[in-house]
From TrEMBL, chains A, D:
UniProt keyword annotation of Flavoprotein present: yes
UniProt family annotation: Belongs to the acyl-CoA dehydrogenase family.
Keywords: FAD, Flavoprotein, Oxidoreductase
Species whose genome carries this gene: Nonomuraea mangrovi
InterPro entries: Acyl-CoA_Oxase/DH_mid-dom, Acyl-CoA_Oxase/DH_mid-dom_sf, AcylCo_DH-like_C, AcylCo_DH/oxidase_C, AcylCoA_DH/ox_N, AcylCoA_DH/ox_N_sf, AcylCoA_DH/oxidase_NM_dom_sf, Mycobact_Acyl-CoA_DH
Identification of the protein by name: Acyl-CoA dehydrogenase family protein
Coiled coil: none
Domain Acyl-CoA dehydrogenase/oxidase C-terminal residue range list: 218-358
UniProtKB/TrEMBL annotation, chains B, C:
Protein name from the UniProt record: Acyl-CoA dehydrogenase family protein
Domain Acyl-CoA dehydrogenase/oxidase C-terminal per the UniProt entry, residue ranges: 212-344
Similarity field: Belongs to the acyl-CoA dehydrogenase family.
Pfam families per UniProt: Acyl-CoA_dh_1, Acyl-CoA_dh_N
Record carries keyword Flavoprotein: yes
Gene Ontology molecular-function annotations: oxidoreductase activity
Organism expressing this protein natively: Nonomuraea mangrovi
Length: 381, 348, 348, 381
C-alpha cells in the first residue's frame, strides 16, 4: 500500500468511525481506542513486536493529517502514548514492554506521569518524593502535582529520590507505579479557571516491586530526560497544529473595526498570529526535509505562550466592560497563562533557546555537585 | 503640586492597612466588615462634607484608602460606594449623603457616560423608572442605585431603591469573583430625582473623579502584587538558588518596580489635582487610567507568571489579583477611551 | 507553500555570502565590487528574464541575495538596483533591461506611490522632464532614474538619464552613511517614457515587491546583528563571567532569536507568494514590512545596546546596523502605512 | 539673608552675568567660573576652609532653580565639581584639599575622571591599568576610555591596579594624575553620532608622586565607590531636570494629528514622558522632606534611558522617510542609546533596583575571591 492509499484508507476509516465534536465519555474513549488499535492506527510507528504497526513517520503524519478534521476521544491516553509508552520502549525491560505496551495501545489501561512536585517545578531534579528499598520492593512516600488524568489512570511513570547522599541528578530512580495501590491518593487540583484539569497525588507507604523499576537504580534522571524529550516533541507537534480560537474572526464581528485604533490592534493580532504560524510551518517543512528542529521548538513554544496571553488580553481590552461577564472571554483570560507555565515557563524556554540554540554559556551552577541532603530546595522561609 | 503624603494621611494609611490585614478576598461581601469600616473607621463618610455628617476629606485621603482596599482585594461594594459618594458630593442630596455618611445606606452607580437604557414617566421629584441595566457593579449588595434616566425632557440622575419589589437583580458570573456584578431590571420603580436635568459639568466631574478613584485602587493591586512576588522570589528555590537571584526574575521585578513608582506618582498627582488644582484634573485623571490601568494589569500578570505553576492554582491568591487587574482595566470602558480623552485634552 | 530553500538556492546563498565576506560597509560605493557582483556573480540580471540576457530567477533567489547584501551592509546602489530591476520586469523595456542585466547601467527608482513632483511636456516616446525630487535613493551612484512624471494626460513612468547635463544631484547627509540619498533637480531633461499612462496594476505590483525585497535585506541585517552580539556575548567578560551566561543578556538574545525565526519564515513566505501564489502576495508583502521592519530595528537596537559602551563608538560596526535598520524601517513610508494596508487587505 | 533673599540675589546676579544659549569658549568658561566663584555661587555647600561657601542644600537648590533658565558655560568643570572635588573632600589629605579644591572652584583647573577601560566597563573593578611603586613615586601604564573633557583637563582622578595577587577589589589604588605629564596621551573617541564627546587616554610610564595618592594603597575601591556615589547623585539631579527636547510639541507640528494611529502614538509619548517626570518630581519632593532616594534613582535613570530611545524611535517612525535626511531627527536617533549606556547599562540599573531597592538576593559571584591574576577579565577569544 503506497502512502496515498494509506491516507485514503485512513480517511475512509475515520469517516466511518470518528465522531466530530465533543469529547466522549471515558468508556467510549476506551472502546474507541480498541477500534483504533484493531484498525492499525494506534502505535503506527511503534515496533510490531510490542503491538505497534512498525511503519514510518510518513504513515503517522498521513494519519495525523486526516485526523485533524476530527476531535478524537483520545485525550486520556495522550500521556501514555506521548510520554510513558515511548519511555518504556526506549528504557524499559522486555518484560515491562510485554506487560504494558499492548494494553496501552489498545486503550485498556490509562497512564499518567508523576515527576513535578510542589517544591520541584522547573527544577524537576530537585524532587523530594522518597523511595526506600525493602527487599524485592520499594516503599514510596511523598507528593506529586500537576498530574493530568491521574484520577482515571491505572499506571503512573514515577520519578523518586533513592539517594540523598549524592548530587541531585544522581540519586533518582524511575518506577512504574500502580495507581490503584491503597496508599495512592489522588486529589483534583482546581486551577484558576475554576476547573480541575490537574491533580495532586499523595504517596503514603506505597510499595512497588523492583520489577517495575525502569532503568538502573539512581539512573532515573537519564530515563526522565527521555520522557521529557518525548513530552517536548508531543507539545511541539501540538504547537504546529495551531492554537484553537481564531480571535481575529471572532473580534471583527464584536468590535468597531472602523475605529483606526481597533483596526491597528486587530492588525497586530494578525501579524503575531501569522508570524508564529509561518514559523511553525517552516519548522514542519524542515522536519520533513530531515532537519530536526531540536531546541528551536522551544522558541515556538515561547512565542505561543506570549501570543496566547496577548490574544486574550487584546480581546478583553477591545470589547471592554461587557467582556467581564462574557463566559467565553473570561475563560480565555483565565486560561491564557497556562501556556506560559505548563511544559516549562517562559524563563526556562529562554534559557533553552539561549543555551541550546545560540550556544551561550550556562549559568554557574551550584546545584550539580552538592549532595542532595545539603542542597537548598523548594520554598524556604 | 504635592506628591508625597502628609503625616495625617500616613496615619490614615496605617490605620486602614492594619484593618485590611484582617480581611480576606476569599470571604465574599461581609456586612460585619463593612459595619466596622463605616463605623469605627468612618470610611463611608470620608469625602462627604461635614455638614452632612462626613469627615470632609479630599480625594488624596480617599485615594489612600482605596489603595489599601485594592491591595487587600477587599470584597464587596467598597469601590462602588466610593464612586456613589463622589457622585453625591457633586449633586448634594442631604438625605442620601447623610444616610451614606452614617453607613445606613450602601449605594452604587450605573455607568454615567454614554446614554441611558432607563426611562421614566413623571416630571416631579419622583420618577417611575423602567428598563434594564445589563451590568451594574455590586448591585446585589447595594441598597440604592444612582443612574441616569431618560425622560421626555432629557436625562435625569435618579436614586433608585434597589430593595423595591419592582427591582429584579440577576447576579452575573463575573471574571473577578471579588467584584460582583448583576443585571438590574426595573419594572416601574419609584426613584428620587437628584438632578433634572442633571448638571452636565457635575456628572462630567464625577466621571473624571471615578478615574482617579479607580487608579488608586489599581495602585494598591500593583503594590500588593509586587510585594507578593518579591517576597516569593526571596524564598523560592530553583536549581539551588533563590529565584530572585536570577536576572530573568530580578530584571522583570525591577521593571515592575519602575511601573509602580510611576503609577504612585501619577495617582498622588491626580488626587492632588482633584483637591487643589481642578484645571489640571481632567488630564491628570485620563493619564491615571491610561497609565495605571495598563501598568496594573501588566504587573498583576507578571506576578502570576513568575509564581510558576502555583500561581495558576485556585488556592493561591495570584489569580484573584490578575482577574481584578483585568477587570479594573476595562471597568470604565475600553482602555482606548482614556487614551482618546487624553488626546482630546492635549488638543492633538 | 515553500518556506525552506532548495539546494540551488542554498548554493546561491553560499556563493554570495562568500563574496560578501570580502566587502566592508566602511568602504563606500566601490564600482569594482559592483563590476564583480554584476559580472562573475551575474546579480544585476538575476531576476531579469533570459530573453533580455538575465538569469530569469524569482523573488526567492533575489531575497536570498538581498539577505546576504543586508547582512554585509554592502554599500552602494544594490537595493536600489534590485528595486529598479523589479520595476523594469513589470514594464518590460528591452533596451534598459538588457543594459541592466549586462551591468552596463545602474538604475534607481523614485518613490512610486503617491503623486509625482515631476512634470513633463511632450506626449511621444520621450518627455522633457522638470521638477525636484527631494530624496532619491542612491541617486548619486546611479545612471538612470525610474520615476513617475505628471503629464497633461496623466502620469507616465519615465526613465531619466541622470548623467544628462540638465540634472543636478545634491548629496544629502543621510542617517545611514552606507545608503546614500540625494536631492535630484531636473531642469528639462529628456526622459524615455516606459509606460504612458502607466499600467496601474504593474506599478502596484512593483511596489508590493519592493516590500518583499526590503524585508529580505532586513532579514540579513537582523541575522548579522544577532550573530555579532551572540558572538560577543561568548567572549566578553563582566564580573568574572561571560556576559552571555547572565539571563539579563541570554533571555534578550533568546527573544531576538524568536524574532529572527519569525522574520525568516515571513520573508520566505512572501518570496514564495511572489513567485508562486500572486493572490497571497499583497497580504504577504504588507505582513513582511509590518513585521520584519519593526523586528529588524528592535534586534539592531538591542544588539547595539548589549555591546555596551563599545557599541556606541564610531569604530565599531554596531551603529551602522542600527542606522541601516532604522533607515529601512521607514524607507517605504512610515510603518503605519504597511499596517493600514494590511488592515485594508484583511477587510477590517 | 533668608532663603527668599538669597534666591532673589541669585536671580539678579544671573540676569547680569549669565548668557543664554550657546556654550561659551573654554577661555570664557574659565573667566565665568572665576566670576561665579567671586560672587559666592561656586561650591555653595562646600566647606569654607577649602574655599566653599559652607551653606546648605537649601541655598544650593535655590541657586540651581534660578540657574535652570540659563545655559551656564560650566560643562568642562562638571566632572571636577560633581565627582573629583567631592571625592577629595571626602577622602583626600588636607594637603590635597589645600592644593586642589580652590583652583577647581575658581575654574582655574579642569578635572577628568579615569576609571573605565576597554575591558572594564560595567565591571570597573576589573580594570588592568597598572601602577608600580618606585621609591616615593608610582609608575603608571595602561589605557582608560570614555573620559569626558580629558582633552582640556589639568588633573585626573585615576584608578589603578597596584596588586594582582589579591581579589580584584582589594588591589586598586586611587591617584591624582597630572594630565600634562608627557607620558599621557589623549585621543578623541568618536561616538556613533560622529562627534567626539569622549576620549581615550593612554599612560606610558607616567610617574605620580606618592603625595598624590588618594586614600591608602590597595584601598582605591572604597575611594572609587565614593566617586561613583557622587556621580550617581549628579546624574539623578540631571534626571530630575528633564530631558531637553519637548518631542510632543515638536511632533504635533510635523505630523498629521488627525490620523488616530498617530494621535495614539503621541498620547503614548505624553504618557511616558509625564509618568517619568512626575516620578522625578516625587523623588525630589521626598528628598526635600528628608527621604533619601538612594537606589530608587536608578529606576528613574533606567526609565529615562528607555524613554529617550522611545522618543527618537517614535519621532522617526511617525515622520517617515524625510526623517532620514533631517539633521535634528537623525542626531536624536544616534544619540538615543547614550542614556542606556552611560552611567551604567540598563542591565546594571535593573540589578541595582532589584538588589538595593527590592533586596533580592545577589547572583553567585565568582569574581570576589579569586586573585586578580587568575580572574577572567575583558574580552577573551
Amino acid at each position: 500500500m503506497n502512502l496515498d492509499e494509506y491516507r485514503s484508507a485512513a480517511r475512509t476509516w475515520l469517516a466511518e468511525n470518528a465522531g466530530r465534536g465533543d469529547d466522549a465519555a471515558q468508556a467510549d474513549a476506551k472502546e474507541f481506542m480498541a477500534r483504533l488499535y484493531d484498525a492499525g492506527y494506534s502505535g503506527i510507528t511503534w515496533p510490531e513486536r510490542w503491538g505497534g504497526q512498525g511503519l514510518t513517520q510518513a504513515e503517522e503524519r498521513a494519519f495525523a493529517a486526516e485526523a485533524r478534521a476530527y476531535t478524537l476521544p483520545t485525550y486520556i491516553f495522550s500521556i501514555g502514548l506521548g510520554m510513558c509508552g515511548p519511555t518504556l520502549l526506549d528504557r524499559g525491560s522486555d518484560a515491562q514492554r510485554e506487560r504494558f505496551i499492548r494494553p496501552l495501545l489498545r486503550g485498556e489501561e490509562v497512564w499518567c506521569q508523576l515527576f513535578s512536585e510542589p517544591g520541584a517545578g522547573s527544577d524537576v531534579a530537585s524532587l523530594q518524593t522518597r523511595a526506600v528499598r525493602d527487599g524485592d520492593a520499594w516503599v514510596v512516600n511523598g507528593q506529586k502535582v500537576w498530574t493530568s488524568v491521574a484520577q482515571v489512570a491505572d499506571w503512573g511513570l514515577l520519578l523518586t529520590r533513592t539517594d540523598v547522599e549524592v548530587p541531585k541528578h544522581r540519586g533518582l530512580t524511575m518506577f512504574v507505579v500502580d495507581m490503584h495501590h491503597p496508599g495512592v491518593t489522588v486529589r483534583p487540583l482546581k486551577d484558576m479557571t475554576g476547573r480541575a484539569h490537574f491533580n495532586e497525588v499523595f504517596f503514603d507507604d506505597v510499595t512497588i516491586p523492583d520489577a517495575h523499576r525502569v532503568g538502573e537504580v539512581n539512573d532515573g534522571w537519564s530515563v526522565a530526560v527521555t520522557t521529557l524529550l518525548h513530552e517536548r516533541l508531543s507539545i511541539s507537534a501540538g504547537v504546529g497544529m495551531g492554537g484553537g480560537v481564531d480571535w481575529l474572526s471572532e473580534l471583527r464581528e464584536a468590535v468597531d473595526t472602523s475605529d483606526p485604533y481597533v483596526r491597528d490592534q486587530l492588525v497586530e493580532l494578525h501579524i503575531r498570529t501569522r508570524a508564529l504560524s509561518l514559523f511553525n510551518q517552516r519548522l514542519a517543512q524542515e522536519t520533513r526535509a530531515g532537519i530536526f528542529p531540536g531546541a528551536r521548538g522551544s522558541a515556538a513554544k515561547l512565542l505561543l505562550a506570549e501570543l496566547t496571553l496577548f490574544q486574550a488580553d487584546v480581546a478583553v481590552s477591545l470589547v471592554g466592560p461587557e467582556a467581564l461577564v462574557d463566559e467565553r472571554l473570561s475563560h480565555a483570560v483565565c486560561l491564557a497563562p497556562a501556556m506560559a507555565l505548563g511544559g516549562g515557563t517562559n524563563e526556562i524556554m529562554r534559557n533553552i533557546v539561549g543555551e541550546r540554540v545560540l550556544n551561550l554559556p550556562p549559568e554557574p551552577r551550584v546545584d550539580k555537585t552538592v549532595p542532595f541532603k545539603d542542597l537548598k530546595v523548594g520554598t524556604q522561609g | 503640586m504635592k506628591l508625597v503624603l502628609g503625616e495625617e494621611q500616613q496615619e490614615l494609611r496605617a490605620t486602614v492597612r492594619a484593618f485590611m490585614e484582617t480581611v480576606s478576598p476569599r470571604e465574599g461581601h461581609s456586612p460585619a466588615v463593612y459595619a466596622r469600616l463605616n463605623g469605627e473607621l468612618g470610611l463611608s463618610g470620608l469625602i462627604i462634607p461635614e455638614e452632612y455628617g462626613g469627615a470632609g476629606a479630599g480625594m488624596t485621603e480617599l485615594a489612600v484608602v482605596l489603595e489599601e482596599a485594592g491591595a487587600a482585594l477587599l470584597p464587596g461594594p467598597f469601590l462602588a460606594g466610593a464612586l456613589a459618594a463622589i457622585t453625591l458630593t457633586r449633586l448634594p442630596d442631604k438625605e442620601l449623603l447623610t444616610a451614606v455618611a452614617e453607613g445606613r445606606v450602601t449605594a452604587t452607580v450605573a455607568p454615567l457616560a454614554g446614554g441611558s437604557a432607563l426611562v421614566a414617566d413623571s416630571r416631579d421629584g419622583e420618577a417611575l423608572v423602567k428598563g434594564r441595566l445589563p451590568q451594574v457593579l455590586n448591585a446585589a449588595e447595594a441598597d440604592v442605585l444612582l443612574a441616569p434616566v431618560t425622560r421626555n425632557d432629557g436625562v435625569a440622575l435618579v436614586a433608585i431603591d434597589l430593595t423595591d419589589q419592582g427591582v429584579t437583580r440577576v447576579p452575573l458570573t463575573a471574571l473577578d469573583e471579588t467584584r460582583s456584578m448583576a443585571e438590574v431590571v426595573l419594572a416601574g420603580v419609584r426613584g428620587r430625582v437628584l438632578a433634572a436635568p442633571p448638571d452636565g459639568a457635575a456628572l462630567e466631574s464625577a466621571w473624571t473623579l471615578f478615574s482617579v478613584a479607580l487608579a488608586a485602587e489599581q495602585l494598591g493591586v500593583m503594590r500588593a502584587c509586587l510585594d507578593a512576588i518579591v517576597g516569593y522570589a526571596k524564598i523560592r528555590v530553583a536549581f539551588g538558588r533563590y529565584i530572585g537571584s536570577y536576572q530573568g526574575v530580578k530584571h522583570k521585578l525591577a521593571d515592575m518596580h519602575c511601573k509602580l513608582e510611576q503609577a504612585e506618582s501619577i495617582v498622588r498627582y491626580a488626587a492632588w489635582a482633584a483637591d487643589e488644582s481642578p484645571g489640571e484634573l481632567p488630564q491628570a485623571a485620563a493619564l491615571a487610567q491610561a497609565y495605571v490601568g495598563r501598568a496594573c494589569f501588566e504587573v498583576a500578570r507578571d506576578h502570576l507568571l513568575l509564581h510558576g505553576g502555583i500561581g495558576f492554582t485556585w488556592e493561591h491568591d495570584a489569580h484573584l489579583y490578575y482577574k481584578r487587574a483585568k477587570t479594573d482595566e476595562v471597568l470604565l470602558g475600553p482602555p482606548r477611551t482614556h487614551r482618546e480623552r487624553l488626546a482630546d485634552l492635549l488638543e492633538l
